[in-house]
Amino acid sequence: MSKLNNPLTQYFHEDYPKQYQEPPGVQKEMNVIPDCGENSYIGAGKLKGRKALVTGGDSGIGRAAAIAYAREGADVALNYLPQEQADAEEVQKLIEAEGRKAVLIPGDVGEESFCKELVEKAYKELDGLDVLALVAGKQQAVEDIADLETDQLRKTFEVNVFSLYWTVKAALPYLPAGASIITTSSVQGYSPSPNLLDYAATKFAINGFTRGLAKQLAPKGIRVNSVAPGPIWTPLQISGGQPSDAIPGFGQDTPLQRAGQPVELANVYVFLASTDASYVTAQVYGITGGIELA
Ligand code: NAD
Ligand code: MG
Q: Could you name the domain of life of the organism this protein comes from (predicted)?
């Protein structure tokens, strides 16, 4: 008989130690290292021969997707910021341990010219491209709109929203029928927190972009979906995504009473990329610990 786990206690469910890093934060240095499936994700050949670009692939949710993609048989190009090189190299080792190709392409997706370069490099080095897992994101909590600087407002929209247009535009000439595009939304794209006015608005925008793009690309046989995480334990949160006081009890106000771990999202990124999802497009999948997407 297989072992049955209680989801309340299946992953870390105590208070997290209070901690802060300058953004984007390095996963290696977190106290309680996020679980991205390094020791647990088992592949079943669902993405054999596929070629995936994963943004934000060094840490957190993107890392969980990248590890799972490699274990399912895909070659993977990873994008991240230069400050995250150490995290990215860990992921590279894990991908190569599966006998898959790992291509590291650091750079700022908030720049249109870099998004083009990123796609060109990924396509060339992977010798093709048929999965875009667009996971990179920026989140900085600000309590009062009076203190929300235009620089932050602009950068949050550039990284979270504009980068999707720039990356998809650059990739479309290369994406064959059967390709899959996956964006990363949030519960914030349904129910905005008062201290995330810029970030939450980008997630509403991502929902609209994803569903509209899905309809535009359906005739080409390209599916487009999104994943909407609830509170997940990642560098994003301890580098200003939450006020420091909110870190210990992070995620405990969800129905499942704990934060999620990145590995708990891996299967959905795999499913949406795979041909198992052949009739799935224009959808947003919630992985939220029970927070309703409404
Ligand atoms: P994370 O810090 O591990 O990942 C975010 C990644 O974004 C970073 O690793 C970094 O590589 C990348 N990034 C940030 N700015 C960038 C830039 N200018 N150029 C290139 N890359 C950049 O945190 P995560 O929580 O795994 O975040 C992944 C995605 O999940 C984000 O889109 C985030 O909005 C979304 N999300 C996270 C949560 C959560 O609770 N952690 C909840 C809902 C949605
Ligand atoms: Mg990171």
A: Bacteria
Is position 22 within any domain? no
pLDDT at 241 over 60: yes
Helix (H, G, I), strand (E, B) or coil at 280: coil
| CATH number for the domain harbouring residue 261 | 3.40.50.720
* 279 catalytic per annotation: no
Among 126, 115, 136, 122, smallest CA distance to 57 is for 136
Q: Which ligand is nearest to the CA of 54?
A: 1
Q: What is the C-alpha separation between 201 and 140, in angstroms, rounded?
A: 13
Sole residue written with tokens 């490699």? 70
* Measured distance CA(144)–CA(40) in Å, rounded: 41
Q: Do the domain assignments include residue 23?
A: no
Q: What is the pLDDT of residues 167-214, one digit of tens each?
A: 999 999 999 999 999 999 999 999 999 999 999 999 999 999 999 999
pLDDT of residue 19: 98
Q: Say what the pTM is.
A: 0.99
What pLDDT does residue 1 have?
A: 56
Three-state SS at 193: coil
Domain count of the fold of the chain: 1
How does pLDDT run across 88-105, given as a tens digit for each residue?
999 999 999 999 999 999
Domain housing 218 = 46-287
What Cα–Cα distance (Å) separates residue 185 from each residue in 10, 45, 189, 230, 285?
Answer: 24, 27, 6, 10, 9
Q: Is the CB of 184 under 6 A from ligand 1?
A: yes
- Residue whose CA lies nearest to ligand 1 atom number 39: 232
**For ligand 1, mutation pick of 135, 202, 210, 288 (most atoms within 8 Å of CB):** 135
